[in-house]
Design brief:
Layout: H1 8-14, E1 20-27, E2 30-37, E3 54-59, E4 65-68, E5 71-74, E6 77-81, E7 88-94, E8 107-110, E9 130-133, E10 136-142, E11 151-158, E12 172-175, E13 182-185, E14 194-197
Antiparallel strand pairs: 1-2, 2-6, 3-4, 3-7, 5-6, 7-8, 9-10, 10-11, 11-14, 12-13
Length: about 200
């Protein structure tokens, strides 16, 4: 059985309002995340796949993607050092607060300057579902994409065997074109790289 935390989109449909507020700032290559509840107190966070926080950072043009795990530096404060180069990013703070309802909403950050290697080209749709990387071949086979229906995403691997990473054989992050909606799923079993997602 997959955990509720594995399908954030399903969790979002049940929770209309979040009990927590997240604030994300970026300065001097350091990203700072603050989390408070409605009373201004620090929530207690539970480990999810070995980490208190999974931070998903995506550039507005979808060309840059980061999945990092910030360090806790205070009761409600986390920090992570990261080099960013694009004007605007959306940041998704993925946490599991104990006894609180939490709705993941994107936090926007904007840089004052842009590094020389910045690529302003919009991301193009990739129709190739098979990739070869370092002698290994990975193929994605999926059900037809339908709204509000569970869709199976199956990854088959040749010349390699998946190893657990952060407590799972795989982690799939799905973000819409406007970088507003976020889904984070893990395999539906402990033996196969098969994921179940539901789209709004």
């Amino acid at each position: 059985m997959k955990e509720m935390h594995n399908q954030h989109e399903g969790h979002h449909q049940m929770v209309m309002e979040s009990d927590l507020k997240t604030t994300v700032t970026y300065k001097d290559n350091k990203m700072k995340i603050e989390i408070i509840d409605k009373k201004g107190d620090s929530p207690e966070l539970e480990l999810t796949h070995e980490k208190l926080m999974h931070l998903i950072i995506v550039s507005e043009n979808l060309n840059e993607f980061y999945h990092v795990h910030p360090d806790q530096v205070g009761p409600s404060t986390f920090e992570s050092v990261i080099n960013l180069s694009v004007h605007r990013y959306r940041v998704f703070v993925d946490i599991n607060p104990k006894g609180k309802h939490y709705l993941i909403k994107p936090n926007e950050i904007q840089l004052d300057s842009v590094l020389p290697h910045y690529n302003d080209t919009a991301l193009k749709v990739d129709q190739q579902m098979t990739k070869q990387i370092k002698g290994k071949e990975v193929q994605l086979v999926h059900d037809p994409f339908e709204v509000r229906i569970e869709v199976e995403l199956k990854f088959t691997i040749k010349n390699g065997v998946p190893q657990p990473y952060l407590g799972a054989l795989g982690h799939v992050v799905i973000i819409d074109e406007k970088v507003e909606e976020f889904i984070h799923v893990h395999p539906s079993s402990e033996t196969d790289t098969v994921f179940i997602a539901q789209f709004s």
